[in-house]
Specification:
Length: about 300
């Protein structure tokens, strides 16, 4: 049973990477250019990701438990906190422009573009609903601690940055959930249709980004390999006992463990570019941590299943 579950996860990860390969090929053949990639990013952030969050909450509203939601929020906060502590501990002696990128890449994993598609494929809509809590916490931490970390002269965080599509959508679905409001079918069906294209579109974009950054990849940077170990292995393993302490619901356990094990967020490259940090280093961080999860996530989830199967 444990082995079968791990094989399902490996299969789903490989499917996602095949979709990314299609995106890579589209970029190589100039079917999608830089402008197209920016447009796809906006489409995902502003339209598709809100749709998948709304759909997951609508489909799973009767099964969502408030205590489980609080547990997931706590796990999301702790995952960022542990990443920040590990990043500071291991990278504090790096040069300033490298230190900021490496700590950022340790803290900020990928619950949206990578986590939600994987949760949906492996665990279903209820897990996606819980995963959207990670997305909301991620966005809040990103536009507070993330900006402070990367900006030499941080300005006061603007409210409009915190009220981004991910956070606003999450607040909206919480209200719908609190008041037990079900959207009419004429509204719900288009939202469901949009949610269905999230996984292929998100991974196509990942492939396009890989193509754009391919020449900046280097395997000789020891700091990046240290990051891969911290982001893909050490942080998820440190989170496991905390996850088991905060919840005993098997689905929530799996969803939290899987999301905490996702690779470095693509936002690392965007922030490094915006704040004139080491862009090449940020690219290597995203690419190598993403490739490494082909091995790390199945192994971590195998450990989760083994712990869940204890008498």
């Amino acid at each position: 049973m444990i082995l079968q579950g791990s094989l399902v996860i490996i299969q789903q990860i490989l499917i996602l990477f095949l979709l990314a390969a299609v995106g890579y090929l589209c970029a190589h053949l100039a079917i999608i250019d830089d402008q197209g990639a920016r447009q796809l990013t906006d489409l995902l952030l502003i339209v598709i990701t809100p749709a998948i969050i709304i759909n997951a909450f609508q489909v799973s509203a009767d099964e969502l438990q408030p205590l489980n939601m609080l547990a997931v929020a706590a796990v999301a906060v702790l995952t960022h906190l542990i990443g920040a502590l590990l990043g500071w501990l291991f990278f504090r002696k790096e040069a300033p422009e490298r230190r900021a990128v490496l700590i950022f890449a340790t803290v900020f994993f990928n619950p949206g573009f990578f986590g939600l598609p994987l949760l949906g494929a492996v665990l279903g809509n209820l897990a996606v609903a819980y995963g959207s809590i990670f997305v909301a916490i991620f966005n809040i931490v990103l536009w507070t601690y993330g900006v402070t970390l990367m900006d030499d002269q941080p300005q006061q965080t603007r409210l409009k940055k915190l009220l981004n599509p991910g956070v606003v959508t999450f607040l909206a679905v919480l209200l719908l959930y609190a008041f037990k409001i079900q959207l009419p079918a004429i509204v719900q069906k288009p939202i469901s249709a949009l949610a269905a294209i999230h996984s292929p579109l998100a991974m196509l974009l990942v492939g396009v980004q890989f193509y754009g950054f391919r020449r900046q990849l280097s395997l000789k940077d020891g700091g990046v390999w240290k990051l891969v170990a911290l982001r893909d292995v050490i942080t998820p393993l440190l989170m496991l006992p905390l996850i088991f302490l905060l919840t005993d619901d098997p689905l929530v356990l799996r969803a939290c463990a899987l999301t905490a094990a996702t690779p470095t967020a693509v936002n690392t490259v965007l922030f490094a570019t915006r704040y004139r940090r080491d862009v090449r280093l940020s690219v290597q961080a995203v690419i190598l941590t993403t490739i490494a999860v082909i091995v790390s996530i199945p192994l971590i989830m195998l450990l989760v299943e083994a712990l869940l199967s204890r008498p």
